Amino acid sequence: MRAVVQRVSQASVTVDGRVVGEIKGPGLLVLVGVTHDDAGERARRLASKLWGLRVLDGERSCSDLDAPLLVISQFTLYGDARKGRRPSWTAAAPGPVAEPLVEAVVDELRALGATVETGEFGADMKVALTNDGPITLILDV
Question: Would you please indicate which residues are annotated as catalytic (active-site) residues?
Answer without folding.
Answer: 74-76
